[in-house]
Amino acid sequence: MIWFQIFQEGPEFEARANRKTFAPPELSLKDLRNAIPQHLFERSILKSGLYILIHVFLTVLLHVSAERIPIILDQLSKTYIHPKVIQNLVQPILWMLYWGWQGMFFAGIWCLGQSQKLVPHLFLMQNRTRGSLRVLLLPSIGY
């Protein structure tokens, strides 16, 4: 196989490209909703609370591991790698990775809290008080 053959179109794409017109399927929203299992539309305090707790736990875990970046880099510079390489290459890369991932986690928490302002307080939870409490707490954590 010649190396540039990996950039050729696949047979599925070629078959679709040879068709002259696109015809969207005859599908109503009711048909689409009926195709989705009904248990997926049910709200669960336990399930939504678990997802929120996992998200917050991962955020805290990432923060705790980031606190150890200087300690790990100090040990690496004493044993394996030249200190200038650590200071000028490895340390900035690790901190940029931390800032990016932590920013995404905090944005996710913030969005979970802000979504309540756009939709009713029963978005994830059927209990209005718990939903309101989530609206109050999550955006504060996400800042």
Write a structural description:
With 143 residues, this protein is an all-alpha fold. The chain has a domain at 43-142. Helices cover 70% and strands 0% of the residues. The protein is built from six helices and no strands. It has helices at 11-18, 29-35, 45-67, 69-79, 83-118, 128-142. Helix 4 runs antiparallel to helix 5. The chain is flat and about 65 Å long. The termini are far apart. The mean pLDDT is 79.
Which secondary structure elements does this structure contain, and how are they paired or packed?
Layout: H1 11-18, H2 29-35, H3 45-67, H4 69-79, H5 83-118, H6 128-142
Q: In total, how many beta strands? A: 0
- What does the main sheet amount to? none
Percentage of residues in DSSP E strands: under 5%
Low-confidence stretches: none
Output mean pLDDT. Answer: 79
What general outline do the C-alpha atoms trace?
A: flat
State the end-to-end CA separation: 53 Å
Helix percentage: 55-70%
Radius of gyration: 24 Å
Look at the helices and sheets and give the structural class: mainly alpha
Along the chain, the helix and strand elements come as: HHHHHH
Question: How many helices in DSSP terms?
Answer: 6
